[in-house]
Specification:
Low-confidence stretches: none
Largest sheet: 6 strands, parallel
CATH superfamily of the largest domain: Hexapeptide repeat proteins
Oligomer: single chain
CATH architecture of the largest domain: 3 Solenoid
Mean pLDDT: 95
Distance between the termini: 53 Å
Helix content: 10-25%
Number of strands: 22
Strand content: 25-35%
Number of domains: 2
Structural class: alpha/beta
Order of helices and strands: EHEEEHEHEEEEEEEEEEEEEEEEE
CATH topology of the largest domain: UDP N-Acetylglucosamine Acyltransferase, domain 1
Length: about 200
């Protein structure tokens, strides 16, 4: 049976990391990338930028699956806009998990989320839609990551912590057990975050 095609919406550095995960996972064939109009025709790791956002309404007739591959640091707004547009247009947004990651069978992951190499997602974790769980992230038991969050490389989120929607949690950050990160927060790299629920 032929693998289905997927288009990657975003043509920057994060897209190249996503390509590596998707190739290793082997569930989809990458049809190409969607970028800015002036990027059309460029190639990234052997894949062509086949169109811009304006072409997505036509691509739905050829491709069933898409993934938002724009990165997220200061704001999730671009990723949210693209995710909503892809949904409205009719694309399916799969969960992509690197075969080098560990995801507990007792964890839940929302559509359009990617789990990168060597991440560890433990029992009871609940991850929302359109999230980036980046390389070597640790999510301990019963953690909640709401929609449209980016947990950056090597961050550790300890048991029962909650990260509300739209957050960026920087590389090497430690979120202590039971802490809660308010919606749309930016937690800088190498922080130790201890804010507890209700405080």
């Amino acid at each position: 049976m032929n693998k289905p095609y997927i288009i990657l919406v975003g043509a920057g550095g994060h897209a190249r990391s996503c390509i590596d995960v998707i190739e290793l996972q082997g569930q989809f064939r990458i049809a190409g990338l969607v970028g800015c109009p002036d990027e059309v025709g460029e190639r990234h790791l052997g894949y062509e930028v086949i169109g811009s956002d304006n072409d997505l309404c036509d691509m739905i007739y050829q491709y069933q699956y898409a993934l938002v591959t724009v990165g997220q640091i200061r704001t999730p707004d671009v990723r949210i806009r693209l995710y909503r547009y892809l949904k409205q247009t009719g694309f399916e947004l799969p969960v992509i998990v690197s075969p080098r990651a560990y995801v507990s069978s007792h964890a839940k992951i929302g559509e359009g989320t990617i789990v990168m190499h060597d991440a560890l997602i433990n029992a009871g974790v609940n991850i929302g839609v359109n999230c980036i769980i980046n390389t070597k992230v640790l999510l301990e038991h019963d953690v909640i990551i709401e929609d449209n969050c980016h947990i950056a490389t090597c961050a550790a989120v300890n048991g029962e912590a909650v990260v509300r929607h739209g957050c960026f949690v920087g590389s090497n950050t430690v979120l202590t057990q039971l802490c809660e990160v308010a919606a749309n927060s930016f937690v800088k790299a190498s922080s130790i975050y201890t804010g507890h629920k209700g405080l």
